């Protein structure tokens, strides 16, 4: 019996990436990653501030996730087993990077609570929330990518 939708054992292409888990998570990852990027870029940066790492992670993950989305949408993944492994590896690295950036950003935000401008503090809080949301999305994507990779 043939089915039009992709299962966890298949890598979708084209519009199929909008109908399968974990591939449907690309868009929220891009949205929350972009919000982290924008919010951190708007905040005050002091010399000992690790927000440079947060910016690197958010820009790197945004660009790589977009490239990954385009490759999957255009059907550029021919050897499905190695692409499934690469998808798992990329999302594992992205989840680890975002977790480390989220912790660093939360620490900076807590340290700036007393002496910073209220507007910058609100931007930092928003960036922390969106950073942790992006982390959760990447972790979920990693779990489902691992399940799909192991099903090959």
TrEMBL record:
<dbReference type="GO" id="GO:0042552">
    <property type="term" value="P:myelination"/>
</dbReference>
<feature type="transmembrane region" description="Helical">
    <location>
        <begin position="30"/>
        <end position="47"/>
    </location>
</feature>
<dbReference type="GO" id="GO:0019911">
    <property type="term" value="F:structural constituent of myelin sheath"/>
</dbReference>
<keyword id="KW-1133">Transmembrane helix</keyword>
<keyword id="KW-0812">Transmembrane</keyword>
<feature type="transmembrane region" description="Helical">
    <location>
        <begin position="125"/>
        <end position="147"/>
    </location>
</feature>
<feature type="transmembrane region" description="Helical">
    <location>
        <begin position="53"/>
        <end position="76"/>
    </location>
</feature>
<dbReference type="GO" id="GO:0016020">
    <property type="term" value="C:membrane"/>
</dbReference>
<dbReference type="InterPro" id="IPR050578">
    <property type="entry name" value="MARVEL-CKLF_proteins"/>
</dbReference>
<dbReference type="Pfam" id="PF01284">
    <property type="entry name" value="MARVEL"/>
</dbReference>
<protein>
    <submittedName>
        <fullName>Myelin and lymphocyte protein-like</fullName>
    </submittedName>
</protein>
<keyword id="KW-0472">Membrane</keyword>
<dbReference type="InterPro" id="IPR008253">
    <property type="entry name" value="Marvel"/>
</dbReference>
<feature type="transmembrane region" description="Helical">
    <location>
        <begin position="88"/>
        <end position="105"/>
    </location>
</feature>
<feature type="domain" description="MARVEL">
    <location>
        <begin position="17"/>
        <end position="150"/>
    </location>
</feature>
